[in-house]
User: Fold DUF1636 domain-containing protein from Azospirillum argentinense.
Amino acid sequence: MDRPPAPVRHILSVCRTCHRYAARSPGEPTPGERLADRLEALIAGTALAERLTLRRVECLSGCRHPCNVSLSAFGKTRLRFNNVGPEQAEPLVVLARRYLDSAGGEVRGEAGPLGLEARIASAVPPPFQSN
Assistant:
C-alpha cells in the first residue's frame, strides 16, 4: 500500500543572539529574541503554524549585519536575510507563506514589494538530489 508523501516541513530560523554586541540592560532580550517573539505571536494559532517551525538558533553567520533570519525546507532554495528587526515581522510572515506555497523556494522577486529585497543576504539552492 502506497502512502501519500509526508508534507515538507518548512523552517523559519531566527538568530536569538543577534545583536550580541549591542548594549542592553541585564535580562533585556536581544533584538533577535524580540523578533522571534513577534514572529511566534504572528504565526501561533494560524494554518501557517501547522507547516512552519520557528527555530531560535545561536547563529546564522551574519554577525556583521544582525539580525539574521532564514527560510528553508528540503528541496528548496534556502534564503537568509540580515538587518531584520521586529518591524519586519509581518512582511516576513507574508513571505514565509509565499515560500511555503512555492515549488522551489524562489520568492526573491516577491520580497521587493514587502521591503525585504535589500535584506536578502544569500540564496542557496538545494544540493543535487538523485532519485
The mean pLDDT is 86.
